[in-house]
Structures are given as structure tokens and as C-alpha cells.
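Dear Dr. L.,

I hope this message finds you well. Following up on our conversation about the binding site, I have prepared a predicted three-dimensional model of the protein together with nicotinamide-adenine-dinucleotide. For your records, I am including the exact sequence and ligand specification that went into the calculation, followed by the C-alpha cells. Please feel free to forward this to your student if that is useful.
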Amino acid sequence: MVSRVIPVDPFDLVIFGGTGDLAQRKIVPALFRRYCAGQWPEATRIIGAARGALTVESFRDIVAESLRQYAPKRSKDPEAVNGFLQRINYVPLDALSEDGWAPLSELLSTDRIRAFYFSVGPRLFGPLAERIRAHNLATPQTRIVVEKPFGHDLESARALNATLASHFDEGQIYRIDHYLGKETVQNLMAVRFGNMLFEPLWNSQYVDHIQITVAETVGIDGREEYYERAGAMRDMMQNHLMQLLCLIAMEPPAKFDPDAVRDEKLKVIRALDPVEPHHIVRGQFAGGKQGRGYREVVGNNRSTTESYVALRAHISNWRWAGTPFYLRTGKELVARSSVINVMFKDAPHSIFGEEAGRHANALSIRLQPNEGITLKVTIKEPGQGGMRLVDVPLDMSFAEALGPENQDPPDAYERLVMDVIRGNQTLFMRGDEVEAAWAWTDPIIAGWQARGDVPKPYENGSTGPGDAELLMKRDHRRWQGINP
Ligand code: NAD
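The resulting structure of the complex is given below.
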């Protein structure tokens, strides 16, 4: 099975912040891989625009180096690299002054799709939108792509939405949550809505609870300043875990179209109850054999920023009333693993008696690494005299099932950048979704501040603070393991 490549029309893509980390590590390599796949035509132009006074040649050198580093396999083909570099341009430009805007304007073609990627710090999002409009660079075929973080709280997200809305239609604004670009996250929708098997059971009558885990082994090195202001709640929970929660809990949209999907996601967020303080655990990595503690890393021995959060959420609607959702995410944990566990209820009656034990089905959807699904089913334990039961996994790795040519699926940025060019907003967050997510998050953070909450320390390389286990234990449940 070979994935299909649907070519797009020529476009101009301006990357504001083109010399930055995100542009060079993710966006440019993603564009290169799509170029190698033959998805975009030769006439396309990628224009880096940033503060550095570089020539086009020196910018191309930077791009060539990042291809070597971040697209090592394909960058071994000199013809592909040279072909790609010919499409690369550069304009020194300042988002906060008039410098560079006239040369940028001259470079752009009038008759094609035009995308402006805001790969700069969030304080520049508003000024960029204003200058694009002031210099008449926004045609009806123009899209803007806005990176995370989208606001720091509800008020700032509203203000940013209002600024962008004064210059662009909602249909032109692409707010990135790169989690939505991951092949396996889209697979969540395919598994749920492409199969007859799961959906009839997908409600509180049959599902005991759902666990969503996004565990990271990395710390916050290189992002200390940003992270100290954000913490795990803002950095991960408000966006990535919230998006996973929406996809797992939403009603089936009538079709796979941007507003149909986003309407359903929004309903989930709006149906979330406020989280009770005793249903949240905050943690902070404290060091140990596997590295330094958070406070040492940020150079603030009184920091109360959380690098871990676990919580129990409730969705008050017909489908989910009574089924809790347990979400957890953290840094410096034992393994890198993103997984959703749908834990079904016990069978209503056991015909095998007490000695057979209690058994329940569980569906694990692994998003990374080793993407796939495992269904835990109960069978008879072989060889015993009586009828004893045992749980066994029905395990499917997508890579194995789909064959070797699909071992290297497009990465999230490849998918998302091409969706921008195609004008498909399904995998991008709408303004009202982002605001609703902040409206749920803000009171949690305000509660911590009001109570002077201090996160619980946990050892680097562990599964997180012990209190997160208690959160489950109190409900007679337990977390599934964090397995790589
Ligand atoms: P960076 O500091 O590495 O790069 C910033 C870029 O902005 C540089 O190219 C710089 O020249 C340019 N710039 C700064 N001031 C400017 C001005 N006044 N006018 C024009 N250009 C200016 O930052 P980054 O890590 O690439 O992050 C960019 C954005 O992406 C941020 O909003 C960040 O939160 C977001 N983001 C980054 C990552 C990541 O992995 N780096 C991941 C997710 C989101």
C-alpha cells in the first residue's frame, strides 16, 4: 500500500522567523520532504523573512545545513537539494518597523495562493497581521499560519483573536496544534468512525473510564524562560491533551469537513465541568540520578511552575455522564509515550463464578512511539482443570500492518503545511475552540495561584509524583503503565 501524493498548485510561502529554530528544524525539512515527494511544483517559492541581514545565498546555506541535520535521508540526493534550494528566497525584514516590507511585496506573485507562516514569538503575531494588511499583501487567496502558544490565558487569546479577525476572515487563519497533524492522531478518527465495532460501545454505559497520557523524557532545556511562565497546564494540557480529549469524546461529525469536526470538538470543551482541586495533581521534576531538578534548570529555587499535571475531568453530556477522563502529561518521565486507554466495564455477570476473576476489555491507542492499537480480550487460561480466565492482547502495529513503504509516514508539519496550501482547516483550531479551552484552563491555574499551591516533587526518570497514583487509587482504578 503506497500513500498517494496529490499535487497542489504553485504557491508563495513566506516564513516570518525563517532563520529560527522551528523554521529550520520542522517547517523547512517538512517542505523539502513534500518537494521530494513531488507534491508541489517547481514554480513554488519559499521566502524566509527574518531580522538577520542575510543574503539569499547565506540563507540557502542555512537551509542546506538544516536539511542535512533534519532530513538526513533525502538530503543525500544533491539534485533534490539543489532543486529545493533554487525555490528558496530571503528578505531581511522587521515585524516592528517598515524595514523589508517593500522588497517582500515586490517578490510576491499576484495570482497564486499566498501563505504567511508566523514562526516568531507570539508578541509579533499582531504586528505582523497589521503590516500584512497595511502593505496590501493580503489577497483573497491569502492564509496566515499561527504557531502556539495561542495566548497565555482567555483574555490574551481573545485579544489575539480580535486582532487577527480585524485583518483576516476566520477561514484564512490556521492555528497550529501540531498534534493534530500526527498521522496517528488522525487515525483516532478513522478508528472511531471508520469501524462499526467501537462506536456502539463508545459511551458511559460500556466505558468505565478513559486515560490519556502524554509522557516525555525530555526536560525544558533551551526553553526555560518560556516554560517558567507557562508550565505543563498551558504548554500541553490546554492544547494537545485537550485536542486528544475532543477527538476521543466528540459526537460523530456529519462529515469530515472543517466546521463539522470543529463544531463537535467545541461541544466537548463546553461540556467539560470545572475541575475540582482534589482532582488535580501538579508535579515538578526534582532531579536524581537521571539529571538536574527543575529549579536548578531554571535557576530559581522557589519556582512553583509545574512540569507535570494529572487530572480527572468530567464531560457533562448524555454520552459521557459518569465516565471520568484521566489526563496526565509531564517532562523528564520514564519513557516517551503518548497513549489513550479506553477502559471498558466488567461484563455485567460472570457465568464462570468467583474463581474466574474479574476481567474487562481495554482498547489502547498508541500515538507514539510504535503507533498502533491493542485490544485486551479475555480468553480461557489453557490447560487448567476449571474455567480460569486470562487477558491477552490483540496487538496491531500500524507500521507492520501497512507494510514497509509506510514505515516513514509524513510528519505532522508536512501534513499541516500542505493542508494550509490546499485550504483545508479541519486539522487546525478555530478561534472559539481555543477560547473555550482557555475558559476551562484559567480557573484551574487561578485556583493554584490563590491557594499558593506548590507542585509535588518527583524523581527524574520516574512515572511522576506519587499523588497521581493516589488520584486513581481513590477511585479504585490505576494508571496503565507508561511504556515506550
Ligand atoms: P527562535 O527564537 O528560534 O526564532 C525566532 C525568529 O523570529 C528568528 O528567525 C528571528 O530572526 C525572528 N524575529 C525575531 N524578532 C523579529 C522581528 N522583529 N521581525 C522579524 N523577525 C523577527 O524561535 P522559535 O523557537 O523558532 O519559535 C518561533 C515560534 O514558534 C514561537 O511562537 C514559538 O513559541 C513557536 N514554537 C516553537 C517550537 C520549537 O520547537 N522551536 C515548537 C512549537 C511552537
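In brief: The chain has two domains: 11-147, 180-473.

With kind regards,
A. P.
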